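Good morning N.,

You mentioned wanting to compare the apo and holo forms, so I went ahead and generated the holo version with S-adenosylmethionine. This is what I fed in:
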Amino acid sequence: MSPDDVRTRVRDQALGIAAGWSPPDAPPTWALTAELFRAIADDDVLLDLAAAIPPDRLPPLLLSAAVRHLAAREAPDPLARYFPTPGSGQPSLDDGFRPALAAFAREHADTLAGLCAAHRYQMNEVGRSADVLAVLGDVTEGAPDRPIALVDLGTGAGLGLQLDRYRYHYAGAETVDVGDPDSPVRLTCTIRAGDPPIPTTVPTIAARVGIDVEPLDLDEPDVRDWLAACIPPETGAVDRFAAATAVVRTHPAPLVRGDLVDTVAKVCAELPPETLLVLVDTYVHVFLPDDERARFRDLLPRLGRDLEWISVDPLVPLGPEGRESVQGLPVPERAVEACRAGVTGVVGRLSVRDGAVSGRVLGLAHPGAAWLEWLDAPQPR
Ligand SMILES: C[S@@+](CC[C@H](N)C(=O)[O-])C[C@H]1O[C@@H](n2cnc3c(N)ncnc32)[C@H](O)[C@@H]1O
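and this is what came out, ligand included:
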């Protein structure tokens, strides 16, 4: 690929991220996130920095994290004032942001390149638990009391493993509150369309374990700082990450280091047989190569027990050309449209019962879980 083609590809990725996180109807608090990614697309120095990052390291996202990390460390004035910190609320955005960012990038280009070379983009978005809980409502509809063994694939720091320790506020035609009313983590999600089967209580989680090639220890200050930098600069995301970090540190859950395709069978074999096995993947399978996704799907019926796989991932290939579900499920046209417009989570449920596999795409989700759109079941012909 020529350097110009690389720049064009990275530019398109940055614009797709801006459009996915902050579409025209997004809450205004997402405007800074969109502006940051549009600046990466438009500014020569930022685009060169992003284009120098290998494509599998998610160039615009990794660069955004490097900018946030360095800005938190150096506190440059006025750039640092634009970024929210826990409890700060969303600082106002004005025409000064772009020039401040451009000046910062020029002054610190070498340091930003070094940060990108030394780190991977590791965003852990606890808000996606609200998407997963909606599917759990679907999963447990017939047997609400059956305890669950939760396996979070690509768990990062393990925020998704604590989904029974959060409180949830779904706002739509009706508002629904679920979960621990005393939790410091309050996840708010707007129901944009449809009627997701939000459960009235969070199912009991009898066992939980996370798998990650690089599990992250939130007791390490450097890890916490880098993960905080990977969070989009939106006040709700920043606050819930800080609150969820405290929950995870109070309730450490087992994290297995390893490739999820290689380790999932062994991990599942050790979980209590009476539980319903629920595998969760949020923004993980989208990054696996095609053959690894196929290998994962093929091994599920061979695990020898009933299970559910809940996925919240954009269609593949990642980007506007995405057409296929990472779970190999039939894809409604609405999901194709949404992924064409910007990065969007496609919410799917795949079930294995007595070795038979079935499933359906259930909904669409904002990448930071600001909204959920539930799709109607296809009508039998
Ligand atoms: C974009 S992050 C998503 C983290 C989390 N699931 C969430 O939604 O907040 C992707 C995570 O998957 C992990 N990962 C990527 N490929 C993996 C693999 N083959 N096996 C296990 N973990 C993997 C990465 O290390 C990273 O923590």
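The chain has a mean pLDDT of 95.

Happy to go through it together on a call whenever suits you.

Best,
F.
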